[in-house]
Structures are given as C-alpha cells and as structure tokens.
Amino acid sequence: MNGRKWFILANEQVRGPYDREGLDTAVAQVTNPLIWGRGQNEWLTPEQFEKMLIDLESTVNRQRLQNEREWRIRLGDQELRPMFYSQMIDYLKNQADLSQFLIWTDGYNEWKEIYQIHKIMDDLGVSRRRHPRVPIMGSIEAEGTKGRFSARALSISEGGLGATEAPQTHIGDQYKVILKSPNLFAPLHATIEVVFAGHDGYVGMKFTGLPSESRSAIIEYVKKFTNAGTGTAGHTNTGITTGDR
Description:
Layout: E1 6-10, E2 13-18, H1 20-28, E3 34-37, H2 46-66, E4 70-75, E5 78-79, E6 83-84, H3 85-93, E7 101-105, E8 112-113, H4 118-124, E9 134-144, E10 147-156, E11 160-164, E12 174-180, E13 188-197, E14 203-209, H5 212-230, E15 236-237
Antiparallel strand pairs: 1-2, 1-3, 2-15, 4-5, 4-6, 4-7, 7-8, 9-10, 9-12, 10-11, 11-14, 12-13, 13-14
C-alpha cells in the first residue's frame, strides 16, 4: 500500500489525496464519507473499503498460484484447449476483438468476460486509456433510435463514460445522453457510442459529440484525481461544489 493515495467524497465535495494514515484520520472527521483510489470502479463506504483491502490481499496471494493453474477460453460455442496464464495472455494479445471471449479457471463459479478481470486487462494493456478515467456519482438518461434507458454513472473521462444498471445495449448503439451529478456544476449533455456492453449491466461509452463547456468541466474534474499521481495536488480540499440546479 506504500505510495498509494485515496480521496474522500463528503457533503458533495472531493477531498484528498491522502495516504493510508491520513485517510483514516480524514474519514473519522466527516459524516457518511465515500472513498476512492486508483483501481476502484466506484466510490466505497468505509466498510466496503476495508473489505476491498482484505480481498486485495487475498488476491495477491492467489496471483502467486495463477501461473500454475490452467485457464479456459470460450469463443461462442467453441472452447479452446486449456492454457497456462502466460500462454493465454500471449494468445489474447493477438486477438482484435476481446469482447467476444469468455474466461474460466478454478475458483470461478461462472464464465467471465475479459473486461471483468482487471489483472488480465492490465496484462493485455486494455486498461491503459488515452484519457484518465475517474469515478463519478450521478444518473444518466439516454435516448436513441433503439429507445431510451436510465443508468447509474460510475466513471468519466474526457473520452467517455462508464455506467451500470443499464438495460441490454449493444456495441455500436448511439445515444444522446444527459449526465446529472452532484460533482458537476450543471447537467452534462453529449452524444455517445456504446463500445462495451457487459452481461452484468455494465456499459462503456465513448463520446462522439461533446460541447466545449462540458469538456472543460470534465477536464477540471479529472485533474483533481490525476494530479495526485504526480504529487502536485497536495492535501487540500479539491471538491467541486454545486449550486442550485
């Protein structure tokens, strides 16, 4: 955990970054805080955060054994021969469309999409984005030729959005969306294209049309997190307060 930094969301303000000791102190000083650090998909309560740390330690121990396990890959109705982890990574690196593959190994209770397994994403370089993605709380309303849907926002970058609790969508679908978030001054309007649609309701969207004022608001919001990685943010209140909407 050395060198890692975390942020707190409390009273619609983002505070941080904090090291582990500073985080414990800051959490104790506010009411109903939520916590986020690099690698998390969303804000967590202190109880969820502590559980995540325990799970992370267990994951590190399991990773020592992963190269000794056999992994299975399914493409549609076809299941490939079992592979060791390094063989699987080499195979997947040569595939153009990773969204079509499902993965299974001992300990899984179901086949999983590659995008659900962060370790594999990291080793494939899939998670390295052109635009840094950070967590955000809010609701998304989308409308397009395939109909309308509502979803819960999880993450945002200058390049797109991540959301959950979305109905069945398909890669390539296009929508006009409105994002309302207590972390932004005003609702964000944009057009998007679905680039990933998971079986669990997760949907990844890239912006295809974004007004300049919305882009500027996103850039400023993202900076408050990414500056922490360069050591330039300092332990100051980095929140975006909101007015009446």
